[in-house]
Each structure stands twice: as structure tokens, then as C-alpha cells.
Amino acid sequence: MTVRRTLPQRGRSLIGAWCFADHYGPDDVAATGGMVVPPHPHTGLQTVSWLFAGEIEHRDSTGAHAMVRPGELNLMTAGAGIQHSEVSVSTLRGPQGGPSSTGEGSGMLHGVQLWTALPEADRHRAPMFERFVPEVFDHEGASVSVFLGSLLGRTSTASAFTPIVGAQFDLPANTTVTVPVDAGFEHGVLVDTGTVTLDGVTIPAAHIGYRAPGATQLTIASGEEAARILLLGGEPFAEAIVMWWNFVGRSHDEIVESRTRWMAEVIDGADPDGRFGRVAGYDGRALPAPEMPNLRLRPRI
After folding, report:
1. Of 25, 204, 277, 278, which has the highest C-beta tally within 10 A?
2. Where is each Pirin N-terminal domain found (predicted)?
3. CATH at residue 155
């Protein structure tokens, strides 16, 4: 599959609590094989699954079994430890299971996988899974969905553990919108399709633009083609994190301990009902962790 990692990057590790953004597709599942990710662990983070086209079957060790579809947020809070699988299917549906309005053909897979880092007070909590379907509304000619946090008078009911916002904007060609924002937040604009300007600065497709805290509004404009963006923002994350493979922790030793327990309890079968639990209904083995690098992991800030 075509995957573009827009966060973290050399110049920036976090935008608010947003610590990871994989932007993938569009890809024809029949041609590529799609997404087949065996059960794998997470700690200290939330996975924010958001699709533009396609469908993914999610199973996790809380017992959740859900279909991820366009316009529907699937939010998994890993807390102290969880495991889950993700497998794409070929049927294309839109929000609430209806027809897709993306214009992408049946069998296409296209979306983002986002993570948020959990703060110290919540990163050891029990894992949980939530689903939220935001209302699509008009703002100055753009279609908007607020899937996490609050924006433009709309609020998501999905759990957030730091001040944060996540929203999709679909702009027709040659459209400019002004978006009031929290001046205490930093913001990123991830461009999926088209080319946009953020406060006059051009951001091409598959790139992310950044605005530091202090702005009370953002001006976002599309060009000669329609554009689709994600607006990601939040209060600057006050804690340094260590992130490796699927774990978010606070030190190298903590990451090593998480990897050791995953390998022992799940891969070697010492305690399949231990820290990470088990995924019911997945036909196959869990994913072994890669070897640790031959160096000590350093915190990201």
C-alpha cells in the first residue's frame, strides 16, 4: 500500500497530543491486497481511525468488533495495554453504511491512521473502544465533520484526555474559509487532496502545514481543484514521550519492558490473558515485535 508518514518528522514530533499520522491510499484493495495487520499491541496512546473510502474490520482485546467506515470515528484507547487487528474489506460504504460520496470506486482504501499520546494521569488506565459519527455541516461553503474535541460550535462525544481537536474539511474549488480557533492550541493542516493555502502559505497534497499557538483564526483556501484536509490541533503536549514501534512511554527502559512482556505473554504464550489480553475472532497469529535498535531511545518533545 501507499503510505505517507506525515507525523512525526524531522522538524516536528507532536502537534498538541497528536504524535503520529499515517496517510494512506487511495489503493485498489483487489490489486494491493489492502490492509492485513495481525493482532499487535499498543500502550500509552489512542488510535484514531478515519477513512475517506473503503472499509476496515477492527477487533481488539476489549472484545470490540467494529467496521471502520468513511465519516465514522473509531477510537481505541490503549492505556496500560491492548492488542488489535485491522483487515480491509472490498465493499465500499459511506457514513452510516450508506453510499460513499467520495467519488472513489468500490474496492478502494483511503484514509488516515492517527495517534494521540496519553498524558501521565491517563496513560495507565484500562483500555476501551468507542465509535462516534459526527454530523456533517456547512461552514462558509465547506463541508465539515468534527470528530474529536470542539470546533465551530460542534463537539465530539469521543473521549479526549488533553485539550485537542480533529476535523475534516471538504472545500470546493476556489473556496476560502475562516476558522476561529483556540489561541492556546497549535494546529496542523494535513492535505489529502488538492492544494491549499494556510494563512497564505501553500501546502501541497500529502503534506502537513503548521501554525504555532497564538492564532485566533486560520484562513484556509483551496485552489483550482477541490480539496480535502484534516485540521489537527491541541494544547502543546507538556510531557516528553518515547515512541517506538506501537508503544508510547516515557523512557527507553519502559519501552523495552513493554516489548518483553508482549513477546513473552502473547507471542510465546506465557500469559495470553495478561497485560494485552487476547483478540477473539482473528484467524492467525499475533505480530512479533521487531528487535530493539542497538542504541537507547531518546525522548521526543
Report:
1. 25
2. 3-115
3. 2.60.120.10
Q: Please tell me what DSSP assigns to residue 157.
A: -
Tens-place pLDDT, residues 253-301:
999 999 999 999 999 999 999 999 999 999 999 999 999 999 999 998 7
Q: How many CB atoms lie within 10 A of CB 261?
A: 18
What pTM was estimated for this model as a whole?
A: 0.93
C-alpha cell at 57: 474490520
List CB contacts of 36: < 8 A, sequence separation 6 or more. Answer: 87, 88
Residue 23 resides in a domain: yes
Look at the chain and report how many structural domains it folds into: 1
Range of the domain at 151: 3-234
What's the burial of 278, exposed, middle or buried (CB within 10 Å: 0-12/13-18/19+)? middle
> Could you write out the DSSP letters of every residue in 173-228?
TT-EEEEE--TT-EEEEEEEES-EEETTEEE-TT-EEEE-TT-SEEEEEE-SS-EE
Residue 256 DSSP class: H
State which H helix or E strand residue 252 sits in. Answer: helix 252-261
34 closest CA partner among 96, 97, 84, 106: 106
For residue 29, tell me if it sits in a domain.
yes
Dump pLDDT digits (tens) for 59-105. Answer: 999 999 999 999 999 999 999 999 999 999 864 333 333 333 344 55
Q: Is residue 105 part of a domain?
A: yes
Alpha carbons 41 and 247: distance in angstroms, whole number: 8
